[in-house]
Amino acid sequence: MTFLIMLKKLSNSNNLVRSMLSCFFVVCMFFTPLEVFAKRPPEIRNQEDVKISQDMHGLDLSGNEYVKFDLKGINFSESNLTGAVFNNSKLRGADLHGANMSDALAYASDFENANLQDVIFNGALLMESNFSNAKIEGADFTDAVLSRIQQKQLCKIAEGTNSSTGIETTYSLGC
């Protein structure tokens, strides 16, 4: 009989040790410092890696992210910006003539006074962007996503034919 009582006490103490180890494991798993998982906000995750200079002419910048960047007056002419992200960026007075911005994402970006002549915007998402006084002669907006208001504003100044795609700007905007 005493042997059974001793065995029962031993198993109860093992359960206690197991329970304590389980609790310790749970605490370690769920209460680690959060900075390990989220060092920077996602909108600036690669900004340290992106090298920006005033002359970015003719570079392959496809897929780069320029979120909330100040890119005023920068020369992106004839650059490959396919799939690039420019959300909430300032591109006032930037030179993008002849650039390929197919499938680019430029939500709420500022293209005021930018040179967008001969730019290819095929499939680009351009909602809420500002195109005031932008030069769009020869720009190809085929399948680009614009608001109806933006489309009407751009149709008023649309002219020319894109030298790469052969598409008229007015046609690509659906004017």
Structure at a glance:
By secondary structure, the chain is mostly helical.
Descriptors:
175 residues; 3 helices; 25% helix
Radius of gyration: 28 Å
For the biggest sheet, the summary is: none
Question: What is the 3D form?
Answer: globular
Quaternary: single chain
Number of helices: 3
Q: Low-confidence runs (pLDDT<50, min 5 residues)?
A: 35-40
Beta-strand percent range: under 5%
N to C succession of SSEs: HHH
Distance between the ends: 97 Å
Helix content: 25-40%
Summed over residues and divided by their number, the pLDDT gives a mean of 83
**Count of the separate structural domains:** 2
Number of strands: 0
The secondary structure category is mainly alpha
Characterization of the model:
- The protein is mostly helical and 175 residues long.
- It folds into two domains: 2-36; 40-175.
- It contains three helices and no strands.
- The protein has helices spanning 2-30, 148-157, 169-173.
- The radius of gyration is 28 Å and the shape is globular.
- The relative contact order is 0.09.
SSE layout and pairings?
Layout: H1 2-30, H2 148-157, H3 169-173
